[in-house]
Design a protein that fits this description.
The protein is an alpha+beta fold. The protein has a domain at about 5-135. It is built from 13 helices and 7 strands. The strands form 3 sheets. The protein has a 3-stranded antiparallel sheet. Strands 4-5 form a two-stranded parallel sheet. The chain has a two-stranded antiparallel sheet with strand order 6-7. The longest helix has about 45 residues, at about 135-185.
Length: about 350
């Protein structure tokens, strides 16, 4: 099927079906214009000769002669065209049948594939492309299999490199955390970091990383999330953040109960660790220990009050003397002694040093 084929076939069908009518009209037209005794061409030629003779006497008739000669030429050309057209007319029943069948087929294809010859042709070309692609399927499949095998090899090699780097990093991070935990009052604690193979590689490699925890010397490490208390988890997290403060992508750390179960000396160490971590990140700490609160850059007091049957939470930012009073209160109760106040001033001074 070609563009415009249906229109050309319809025109041919009309000519073939009306062959006698076409032949009679074209033959009669050729005779009237040229070949009969009284043909238009001959009569124009006679008039032209008469007027041409008069134009010799009066040049004003010369344009009329030219017009007549042009009209005669056009009439003769038209007669020739009609003669040639009539010579090509044939009534061919077999050809008419072929045309009808072809038009029927084109109609079916148009209805099935888009409603027009152009749409059907476009669909045919798309099917041809699909068939060509199917023809080269085996070749393409082999190429894809080879590409998959190559990708698997590269993935395995990169996964091994990543695993080795993780194991090295785990050893370094584990040592740093153990050192920090000793400073935080967990002298016998260890946090082994285990890098294990997964059944299937994933977007982040072929490893599963687990943090284990042994809170006391001589104990077998077990999963951190299963055995560590809230205070231990907070201190382990502080140890992790202390070790990764310069590399971690998190911008804010929040610590709650990091001071659970620790004394004054360890609390001061925790305070210094938090202050050191805050040099690289925003650190929010919830604490009841003045030894930790003294190291804060900003001190916020949160209190709860009951009034008229409702409980209200109040938040106050403490500055200057207010902060010293709050540290003293944390040291000595609701009515701190002069000694507690002096101690609070000394703690704040040491924290700033």
């Amino acid at each position: 099927m070609q563009p415009g084929e249906d229109e050309a076939l319809r025109a041919e069908r009309e000519r073939t079906k009306g062959a006698e009518k076409f032949l009679a009209a074209c033959t009669r037209g050729e005779e009237v214009l040229y070949s009969s005794d009284e043909a238009v061409s001959g009569r124009i030629a006679g008039v032209t000769r008469e007027i041409a003779a008069l134009a010799q006497l009066d040049p004003a008739l010369a344009p009329v002669v030219e017009t007549l000669r042009s009209a005669q030429a056009q009439v003769e050309d038209s007669a020739g065209e009609l003669g040639r057209y009539a010579g090509g007319i044939r009534f061919d029943p077999e050809r008419l049948t072929e045309i009808e069948e072809r038009l029927f087929l084109i109609g079916r294809l148009i209805r099935k594939h888009g409603g027009s010859v152009a749409a059907a042709i476009e669909r045919r070309e798309a099917i041809s492309r699909e068939l060509a692609a199917l023809g080269s399927f085996e070749e393409g499949l082999a190429a894809r299999k080879a590409a998959v095998e190559d990708a698997m090899k590269r993935m395995t090699a990169l996964g091994e490199q990543l695993s080795e780097q993780r194991r090295k990093a785990a050893r370094v991070l584990g040592r740093r955390m153990d050192e920090t935990l000793r400073d935080l009052g967990l002298a016998g604690a260890r946090v082994p970091i285990v890098v294990e193979d997964r059944d299937e590689p994933g977007p982040h490699g072929k490893d599963r990383v687990r943090f284990l925890f042994a809170p006391n010397r001589g104990e077998e490490p077990r999963p951190l999330d299963l055995i560590a208390s809230g205070g231990e988890l907070s201190r382990v997290m502080l140890a992790v953040k202390q070790a990764l403060a310069k590399e971690d992508e998190a911008l804010t750390y929040v610590f709650d109960e990091v001071d659970a179960g620790v004394g004054g000396g360890t609390a001061e160490v925790i305070g210094r660790k938090l202050k050191s971590t805050a040099a690289h990140r925003q650190v929010l700490v919830v604490t009841h220990l003045p030894q930790i609160a003294a190291f804060a850059d900003h001190h916020i007091r949160v209190t709860k009050e009951a009034s008229r049957g409702r409980t209200t939470i109040r938040v106050a930012v403490l500055t200057g003397a207010e902060r010293a009073v709050e540290i003293a209160r944390m040291l000595g109760g609701a009515s701190p002694s002069p000694e507690a106040t002096a101690h609070a001033d000394e703690m704040l001074r040491r924290a700033r040093g």
